[in-house]
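Standup notes
- DV: blocked on the single-chain target, sequence here:
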Amino acid sequence: MIEAVDGSFWFRWKSYIVAQFRQGWTRVAGAVVPNTQTAVFATLSWLLCRSLLDDPNPIFAPIVTFLCMGFSRNREPRKVIEIGLGTSTGVLIGGLIGHYSGFSAWQLLALLLVTPLIGRFIHRSDLVTFQTAINSIVVAGMMVSSGVAGSSPLDRWLNALIGAGVALVGTAILPTNIVTRPRRYVAYSLGEASRILRQLGKHVDGGDANAIAALRGRLISMRESLNDAIRALGSAQETAAISPVAIGSRAELAELDRMLELTERLHVTLSMMQRQARGMVREVGPMPGIAAMMRQTADRLEEVGIGVGSWQRPTQARDATVELAATLRPAEMVSDPGDWRNATLMSLLRAIVVDLLGLTGLSAAQARSALADTGDYNPQTDEDAASGVDLASNVWGTDVLPAVGGLADQQEAPPESTDSQANGEAAAPGEAPSSSR
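- DV (later): unblocked, structure below
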């Protein structure tokens, strides 16, 4: 028993570490281009100081440029100005203190007492306060320890100003797309949900309860990725709210917000499914029927994640998921009335498919109508799914409802609002529309 627990503990942490490594690699891939841009502009600021000020070692210019520009695509001129202002002020104060009084315990205490207050006086931003205090200490200490206490603090201040100016120019002229980062996080989270569900199906099919338990680590990592996505999206929405240049991105950000909420629902359902499946497999062993359905759903999730990453309308994934939803019949899966385990997992899987169809643009009512065995459910009269994330997408939605069991009368949309009309094709009654967009 102890060995089983230890093994499960190790597998869980191994799964978490693998997921963290994948997240880290995704972050690195997203930071390569902006980091290269920052490195180029930081080097440019160093060359400018060498040329304009005849400073043999203007190290503060590239430091300030790098601090201001960072390694994210979401560079905001306001933050660049705040960091540049705080950094240059700290460099000037630290240079004066180091030049005229040296650097020891009492100078350190004085800097920490005074510079944060100066930063707060200059601007309310915490960035200004921290940069003013930290850089004053760094510069004062460097001037003494490097033996350059006799050099002019004005030179270092000018270095910092040039570095901040180069960063501001770079931020202004470099192309920016505020939706890139949140979109990448949402696409990654969907891909991770697909991988978790596929692994869950594999281990349910194999009857490996310990491997199912280990997926808890992957779910924790996915939750962290979702938190990163929330922060990235919030930052992008704040920029779009004040930037005239980003007005065109607001609709896409609203759609990403909708997708993120649906992905959070997926995470909750996956967590419940993982917890339930672990106990069920221990009780009855392999469950191949429901496992096959899990793997099919994972394939559809992967397709939608790829579509979000490239921002292409996931029509094929929508059509395939509608077909999958029509096969999720609890009565066929649960041949034995006492087999509540398969019925439970089927119920959770149907919830995942509804959210998955929502990710393709359908409303919650449309998605539920695509499920098999919905009885006399009429999506046109569903008042419970008429607000917020349960509405159809403004970007990828459609007014043509998927087929519903015996419901013959489908609401048809105006020609300009249907996916099929976008291709110049007529949608047959009860069929899901198609589009190549």
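- Follow-up: The domain at 180-241+248-405 is CATH 1.20.58 (Methane Monooxygenase Hydroxylase; Chain G, domain 1).
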